[in-house]
Specification:
The two termini are 26 Å apart. By secondary structure, the protein is an alpha/beta fold. It is globular. The protein has one domain: Metal-dependent hydrolases (TIM Barrel, Alpha-Beta Barrel), CATH 3.20.20.140. Bound molecules: zinc ion (ZN).
Length: 246
């Protein structure tokens, strides 16, 4: 079965992860060892988009899709996007690190670019409900119905939040909202998410360089769903979404 890891970081984190740093070569070794064939990669929060982009975009040893980190306060972000938009596969928004809800107006222009160019946006969703609730992403989805949004950590990283989120995203008005499995461990509840939301909504990710794909691949492998559904989660859904962009 082809496995694409749809959520990996490479490079340097700020103090939130003790300035931890990892390289492209380390990522390739870990991905290959885990049987992963391609990865959607984004910088860590203290790494420049341009530096990582140059290292991965035409990498001869591994297939990477580049995911640009969208910090509205990054002064060189707009220039980077202008220059490389056709080779940028996704955008990443991290409300908790940026300390801004995704509904903050500073994100608007980037959400418009993403919607117009059919660039999926991966949004960190967590337990900090004031800032990083999946509910703000659903508001954004109503405002930009064509925008493809992937809610990371299944929309909340804890069963009470992500089970509730799975029922919401099933609604027809959220047809362009997807759920990423990165760093979720509770396999029986992940199974419930898939049963509620549908396998066509769920996308595998590991959150490497913080976590390992080898930790999270078995979560999906051991769920009692069809091989076809597993294939959607491991690669089919993300490839379909990436294919919308020209
Ligand atoms: Zn992440």
């Amino acid at each position: 079965m082809i496995i694409i890891d749809s959520h990996i970081h490479i490079g340097q984190w700020s103090e939130i992860f003790f300035n931890y740093n990892s390289t492209v070569d380390e990522a390739i070794t870990v991905m290959k060892k885990a049987g992963v064939s391609a990865a959607v990669c984004m910088p860590a929060d203290n790494e420049q988009n341009e530096k990582l982009f140059n290292e991965v975009i035409n990498n001869q040893n591994f297939k990477f899709y580049f995911n640009a980190w969208i910090n509205p306060e990054d002064k060189i972000l707009d220039g980077f996007l202008d220059k490389h938009l056709k080779n940028i596969s996704l955008f990443k928004i991290h409300p908790s690190i940026q300390r801004k809800r995704i509904t903050d107006e500073s994100y608007d222009k980037y959400l418009q670019i993403a919607a117009e160019n059919k660039i999926p946006v991966i949004v960190h969703c967590g337990r900090w409900q004031d800032i990083a609730s999946y509910k703000f992403c659903l508001e954004v989805s109503l405002k930009y119905p064509e925008l493809i949004i992937i809610l990371a950590h299944l929309g909340g990283d804890t069963p009470s939040l992500y089970l509730e989120c799975a029922s919401e995203v099933k609604k027809p008005e959220y047809k362009n909202v997807y759920l990423g499995t990165e760093s979720v461990r509770e396999f029986k509840f992940v199974e419930q998410v898939i049963n509620k939301a549908g396998a066509e909504k769920v996308i595998f990710g590991s959150d490497y360089n913080l976590c390992l794909p080898q930790t999270f691949i078995p979560v999906i492998e051991n769920i009692d769903i069809s091989a076809g559904d597993k294939e959607l989660i491991f690669s089919g859904n993300i490839l379909r979404l990436l294919g919308f962009k020209d």
